[in-house]
Amino acid sequence: xxxxxxxxxxxxxxxxxxxxxxxxxxxxxxxxxxxxxxxxxxxxxxxxxxxxxxxxxxxxxxxxxxxxxxxxxxxxxxxxxxxxxxxxxxxxxx
Length: 94
Fold this sequence. Notes:
By secondary structure, the chain is mostly helical. It has one domain. It is built from three helices and no strands. It is elongated, with a radius of gyration of 21 Å.
């Protein structure tokens, strides 16, 4: 029997697999603060995605998200993604 009241791990990615796998329902949950209500996985996922999009958008707007590859080069390389030039060890069962 586990007696921990709180688990804090830097290895946690908030995938919620431990919550789903726990044999005792409503034992494990993810919370923002110790006395707050449990945070549903869909809310957490939405928050992470929103923060990611906001940061990338801010970087693009402020001109900090740049490289020297043109849109035309992106388009031509995108068409080649399934060619051997872009395969790597471990891809497609190798």
